Amino acid sequence: QNQSQSHYSSSSWLSPIIAAAPIISAATIFALTVASYPSPATAGDITKGSQIFKSTCAGCHAGGNNFIKEKKTLKKDALEKFVGLDETKITEFFKKSFVHQNQAGGGKMSDEDVADVISYVITQAVDDKW
To answer: Can you tell me the mean pLDDT for 44-58?
Structure first.
């Protein structure tokens, strides 16, 4: 009986851990799941996109404006009206646009660079940062 008492008392410290395990597991799974799904506006690297935008795009699009086609700015209302705030649609538009083909199609910007810039542009537009 001494042996069973010592076994019981040594394992009693595990009871709270065992009881908390499902809660800890659920919280961990939730956190990892949420972290693995980036929002569409931030799928690219916004900081890197900002740097690329300033060096490559700001000549025509400073402050979210469009110095070639004044109504087609990078501001939220214009993006919604002319392209949509969907990252895929903006990327397709960018890559097909004659003006942008030298940057994207000409190999000056990788697909990753384009994604970073698009994420930066959408974030600026949605958050009214232009």
So the answer is: 94
